[in-house]
Design a protein that fits this description.
Belongs to the carbamate kinase family. The chain is of the alpha/beta class and about 300 residues long. Helices cover about 40% and strands about 25% of the residues. Bound molecules: adenosine-5'-diphosphate and phosphoric acid mono(formamide)ester.
């Protein structure tokens, strides 16, 4: 089976961790152990990954640097594709060497087309960087004109514009690599957002949601399964309350009812559910939202929130 796997940025850099290279490499290596198991079972694998924590850290590093020009958000996104891609390639090489699997992986610096008139440019919604307290968030809003939100009970985070992905510009190249038995890492961080202006592609300041771009990647690569891996085993209803309940196998109709009720975090779980639903509604076989630890069972249909056609 061909699987597109979307790795959450928060799984690569967990809330509360400092963000050292060693921490992130270790987290990625743990993810790649599971991906190695799937490759050993004979599955073809396409990978995308988040970059919210990482791109936010680059913005903080830039703000702390004197006399060095800050680079725009599309450049920061490209940087994260490079170093997160490196961590995945490095980890997969080490995992495959141990398992004696002869498959190579490569990262594709990927541009994703967005609409320059997307209303998201006026309404920042994508959380980036570490979690802070409310006081810090209010100070940044007051002094820097930034926008901050409370993120699913975990603390306050800066938000940036997150337009809808329309098209993966490197689609054909990605498919050529897959046909040549490569594990491709693409559309990292949702892809580098570009708009079409006077017949040219130009980068714009935004961070695309990687689950929405991941859905297009899964469709463009004719994947059977779209797996969204995050830090919870299941999507929940009444999340964070005493009545919290995990969703298992669920139809599009049922999960859309919960979506309409506002059961899923706006900048976190809601885009995952919408992306999973879109993949299945448009003809994909199955979409799963689960944690890394459950991925092997999820592929067998035995764990996670599995969305199927009504
Ligand atoms: N209804 C819900 N069920 C489960 N998790 C939810 C729900 N609503 C919001 N969340 C939050 O969504 C988070 C996962 O989204 P996010 O942090 O964006 O993940 P990632 O970085 O892995 O892509 C969970 O850690 C949880 O705090
Ligand atoms: N770009 C993006 O969606 O990143 P996260 O998954 O880390 O939020």
């Amino acid at each position: 089976m061909r699987l597109t796997i979307a790795l959450g940025g928060n799984a690569i850099l967990k809330p509360g961790q400092e963000g050292t290279a060693a921490e992130q490499m270790n987290n990625v290596y743990q993810s790649c152990l599971q991906i190695g198991e799937l490759a050993a079972l004979g599955h073809e694998i396409v990978i995308t990954h988040g970059n919210g924590p990482q791109v936010g850290n680059i913005l903080l590093q830039q703000a702390a640097a004197n006399n060095i020009p800050a680079l725009p958000l599309d450049f920061c996104g490209a940087q994260t594709q490079g170093f997160i891609g490196y961590m995945i390639q490095n980890s997969l090489l080490n995992v495959f060497k141990d398992k004696k699997i002869n498959i190579h992986s490569t990262s594709v610096v990927t541009q994703v087309l967005v609409d320059q008139n997307d209303s998201a440019f006026d309404k920042p919604s994508k959380p980036v960087g570490p979690f802070f307290d409310k006081k810090h968030a209010q100070k940044q809003e007051r002094e820097k004109g930034e926008k901050w939100i409370e993120d699913s009970g975990r603390g306050w985070r800066r938000v940036v514009p997150s337009p809808r992905p329309l098209k993966i510009m490197e689609k054909d190249l990605i498919n050529d690599l897959i046909e040549n038995n490569r594990i491709v890492i693409a559309a990292g961080g949702g892809g580098i957002p570009v708009v079409e202006k006077e017949n040219e592609l130009k980068g714009v300041e935004a961070v695309i949601d990687k689950d929405r771009a991941g859905c297009i990647l899964a469709q463009n690569t004719a994947s059977d399964f779209f797996l969204i891996l995050t830090d919870v085993d299941n999507v929940m209803i009444n999340y964070g309350t005493a009545e919290e309940e995990a969703l298992g196998q669920i139809s599009i109709k049922e999960i859309e009812k919960h979506l309409a009720e506002g059961q899923f975090g706006k900048g976190s779980m809601a885009p995952k559910v919408e992306s999973a639903v879109k993949f299945v509604r448009d003809g994909g076989e199955k979409a799963v939202i689960t944690s890394l630890n459950k991925v092997i069972d999820a592929v067998k249909g035995e764990a996670g929130t599995i969305i199927y056609k009504d």
